[in-house]
Every structure is written in structure tokens, then in C-alpha cells.
Amino acid sequence: MSGKLTQSLHxxxxxxxxxxxxxxxxxxxxxxxxxxxxxxxxxxxxxELLKRVLFEPGVRPTIPSKRxxxxxxxxxxxIKQAWALEQEHLESRRNEERKRKFLAMKEAHDILKQESETxxxxxxxxxxxxxxxxxxxxxxxxxxxxxxxxTWKAPDAxxx
Length: 160
Known about the structure:
- The protein is an all-alpha fold.
- 61% of the residues lie in helices and 0% in strands.
- Helix 4 packs across helix 5.
- It is elongated, with a radius of gyration of 43 Å.
- The termini are far apart.
- The relative contact order is 0.03.
- Belongs to the mitochondrion-specific ribosomal protein mL40 family.
- Keywords: Mitochondrion, Ribonucleoprotein, Ribosomal protein, Transit peptide.
């Protein structure tokens, strides 16, 4: 390379390596020493160790053979069976919990019946009337011609 090109590259490198907007150092010897120290830190033993660990020779990914496929199939079967067994145990624990809760509820039900007949009747009373009036118009996308029937009355429960 020509001398001028080399000088301009060194000058550009010095600008890049020094802090942003910092004035160039008057001491060129100190700049050269600092550049050597930076370059040494980049190629130091730490980087060599990283290169050895990351790019270790002799370790290459291998393509699984047919035997590996059979082993993988067996492993998959074992995993599926273990998962099914775990789900079965989980379901049995849930069923036991449900039974325990039901028995506790039944016991509380019997105790309430023994303590107070009126509270028991209030607890087991059910409203047999429908939750939603079946006589109402079915909801649709379009509004009805008559928006609201102000004369509508609920049918008498005793007549049905």
C-alpha cells in the first residue's frame, strides 16, 4: 500500500478507537501503546479459551441412524405411557377429592336438617319457575316492528 493510504487508515483507526469527539492525543507513543494493549486484549488468552470451547475440534453433529430412530421410538412410547399413568393418577386424586367434598357436604346437610328444619327447607328450596320468560320474543338481528308491548302481562301461574 502507498504511504498516504496507510497514514489515512491509521488516522481513521485512531479516530474510531478513541472516545467520541475526543481531541487527538499529542503523544503518539502513548496512542500506539494503547492501540497495542487493545489489540492484545482482543486476542488474549480469554478469547482463545472461548474459541476452544465454542469451536472444539472433533465435535460434529451427527445424523441419527436407523437404530437411533428405533431407540427414539421406544423412548417416545415410554414417555407417552408415563404421561398417561400420571394423568390417571391425577384423575384418581381429583375423584378422591370430589368424593371427600361430597361426603362433607352431605354431612353438613344432615347436621343442618337436625339443627333447624326451617333453615334446612330454605337451603333445599328450589324455584320451579323458569329463569327466563319463554313467552318473550326470540332475539334477532333486526328490531321488531313494535319495539315494546306496554300492555303485556305475565301469564298467571295458577292458570297453567
